[in-house]
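Here is one chain, start to finish.
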Amino acid sequence: MSPRIFSWILYAVVGLFFGVAAVVKVVDPEAFLTSLLTYEVFSYDVALALAFFAPALELLVALCLISGWWRQGAALLTFFMLLLFIVLVAQGLARGLEMDCGCFGENRLQTGGDYMLKIGQNLILLLALATACFFERKAPSR
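Its structure:
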């Protein structure tokens, strides 16, 4: 398999993940708002703005990662969104909160294992994104 195809597959996987997560949030913004409030770091007004802005941003980066349009910018933005989410989940774990991550509808984080699984999932997405970037740069130019 060529490096270009391999990187596109990885971008597509990350993009599909973000696309599905965005659609779930767009369909039920109230549930996502409720999830954001369980993090206990956002005021109601900030959480309300995020409940509408974050899914649109996720959908945009998903389309860019899959299509190749503005892929470098979308990959960078995705990288920072994943890092932010890891930090938010880790702070919930450190504070002993019972949270709902809000990724794909209701997804309760109650035990240390739940939190570590969610952090691990996002680390895998970060690794897939970094690998895609590496192989894209390694691929011969068109």
